Amino acid sequence: MMAHIALFHSILGLRPAERLAAERLRAAGHQVITPDLFGGATATTLDEGFQLLDRVGWATVVHRARQALRDMPEETVLAGVSMGTGVVTELWPERTAAAGVLLLHATAELPASVPPGTRVQLHAAEPDDFVPPENVAALRRAAREQGVELEIFRYPGAGHFYIDREGEDHDPEAAELTWRRVLDFLDHGLTSRGTAP
Fold first, then answer.
1. Which of 14, 19, 85, 158 is the least buried, fewest Cβ under 10 Å from its Cβ?
2. CB–CB of 103/181 below 8 Å?
3. CATH number of the domain that 152 lies in?
4. What's the CA gap between 35 and 197, in Å, rounded?
5. Predicted TM-score (pTM) of this structure
6. Full 3-state SS string of 101-163
7. SS3 of 169, please?
8. Rounded Cα distance, 154 and 152, in Å
9. Please, which residues have CB within 8 angstroms of residue 70's CB and are 6 or more apart in sequence?
10. Looking at the DSSP assignment, which residues form a beta bridge with residue 6?
11. What are phi and psi of 44, to 5 degrees?
12. If you ran DSSP here, which 8-state letter would residue 39 be given?
């Protein structure tokens, strides 16, 4: 089953981590866009990333993401990498027909209007300062109350951005397991409105 996916990058900008992820998803038969929310700029450290975000501005980031989705099907899967999950939080209330949501390295807030049965996956290191237990508990509670089908996968001992081959947090085993689970989710775990023959 083929899915349309919008993959939003981390605070480091659109880098090989997201491009390689998109290539892997495309190789599995999915259509993927990777919007460049920083206009070509990238960072090598979190501090540089936050400075870059300050220069670009959150409103511009969200506007660029919204524009990138303009011609995408309503059922497009929303996927965020770290900061990208914040972008998902912003756009999800406008895209409640999304066939599924993928949260990598950070949580997101469920919109009140999300339809019951929507599938969501969270993948995060354990422990991770960017994924505090209270945020995970809040997500789990909201999913239960709203009838969202939430799967949470934690990766003990991995660093925050463990899928990034170029980063010091890289954990090959955790990254491989994450992508196997993501592909299974895309192949078998989406709501029926989001799949195509």
1. 19
2. no
3. 3.40.50.1820
4. 26
5. 0.94
6. EEEECCCCCCCCCCCCCCEEEEEEEECCCCCCHHHHHHHHHHHHHHCCEEEEEEEECCCCCCC
7. coil
8. 7
9. none
10. 33, 78
11. -110, -15
12. T
Q: Which two tokens stand for residue 150?
A: 């939430």
Per the CB < 8 A criterion, the answer to whether 130 and 160 are in contact is yes
Pick from 193, 196, 158: which is nearest to 176 by CA?
A: 158
- Sheet with 4-8, strands from edge to edge, namely 31-33, 4-8, 77-81, 100-104, 119-126, 149-156
Q: Among all chains, which residue has been given the structure tokens 């090598």?
A: 44
The verdict on residue 197 lying in a domain is: no
Residue 195 included in any domain:
no
Provide the residue range defining the domain that includes 127: 4-189
pLDDT averages per 10-residue partition of the chain, 197 residues: 95 97 97 98 96 98 98 97 98 96 97 94 97 97 97 97 94 97 92 44
Total domains in the fold of the chain: 1
